[in-house]
Amino acid sequence: VRPAGAGGPGGSGVLHPHPPPVAGGAKNGQWQQGYVDDFIQGLTGITDEMLEGAPLPEEALPQVEDFLGRDLLLGHNVGFDTAFLYDSFQKYLGRPLGNNSLDQLRLARKLLPQLPHHRLGDVAAALGVPYEGAHRALADCWITYGCYEKLRALALSQGTEEEFLQRFEKK
């Protein structure tokens, strides 16, 4: 799930839910709604014109909810993305988003401490994951998933899943 912006005049941000391609295969679909500011347009190439005719949040979010089901949301710095969704669900639907999330950024920081930065592009480069199409919703999902798969394999090569999870426990 990738929000493309935090909003603009009288609007919500651009909402790009895309399938996190997890076990069992990816779901297909996308929704876009909102106003694109200059920063987001420069970063993503998304324009207001591309969003013409998109459904309003009140119309799109129930579809997003059905689309996501109770699936785990995987993302790189996923707190940003889920905060956007949680706020939108509360604002437009009057209820919170109930999905749990897994932050691949935290995994990367634990498993690749030698990297000076842990931006998605840096992690992808370190793991040999192609970075084409970055900053677009579906491409970012596939890049994130590719990194996750490599990070998971790396973690399991260093011990058991339980041992890895212990690295995250507060002491």
Please tell me about this protein's structure.
Helix content is 46%, strand content 6%. By secondary structure, the chain is mainly alpha-helical. The chain has 7 helices and 4 strands; from the N terminus they run ββααβαβαααα. The longest helix is centred in the last third of the chain and has 21 residues, at 137-157. It has a two-stranded antiparallel ribbon with strand order 1-2. The protein has a two-stranded parallel sheet with strand order 3-4.
Summarize the structure.
This protein has 171 residues and is mostly helical. It is 46% helix and 6% strand.
Keywords:
171 residues, mainly alpha, 7 helices, 4 strands, disordered N terminus
Q: What order do the SSEs take from the amino end to the carboxyl end, as H and E?
A: EEHHEHEHHHH
Q: Characterize the largest beta sheet: strand count, sense, and whether it forms a barrel.
A: 2 strands, antiparallel
- How many β-strands, per DSSP? 4
Quaternary structure classification: single chain
